[in-house]
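Hi Y.,

Following your request, here is the sequence exactly as I used it, all 148 residues.
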Amino acid sequence: MFSLFRIVNYYSLKKAAPVYYERFKEFWELFTKLSPELNTNLFRLKSFALMTNFAPLVAPLAPITIAIYSEFSGFLSNYLMDRITLHFKANYKITFVDSFLDADLVISTTTIHPDELLGTPLVIVEPTLNANDFFLIQQRIQEIINRN
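Below is the corresponding structure, written out as tokens. Let me know if you'd prefer a different format.
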């Protein structure tokens, strides 16, 4: 029975999923403060298992389609796609499309006339994709996801 208590290695969990671990830790500290008689390893394990049932460690990623436009040649578009994918791969399932009409979001290194966007939201970024650009992209994606 004692081997059951080692099923969850909280130290490894803290390294692999720090946000998830912190949320459980905060819950457990508050819970045991309010109900100290339930502060046992077995109940902690049961609580953790219940939490993973309702909020899986690996949650499905929100889908988002993005069209990239650059006044430079195609290689920059590929670079931008790679950088965006790497930056957001833990948060969103990104699909890149060629048509603004098929996209949820257009990311461009230059201004685009609103008529060309066909109503698709636009984020204008630097070709180097700096921290502010990622912040703006994150905000716009979150707005799109919240709206859907």
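The first helix runs from residue 10 to 16.

Thanks again,
Q.
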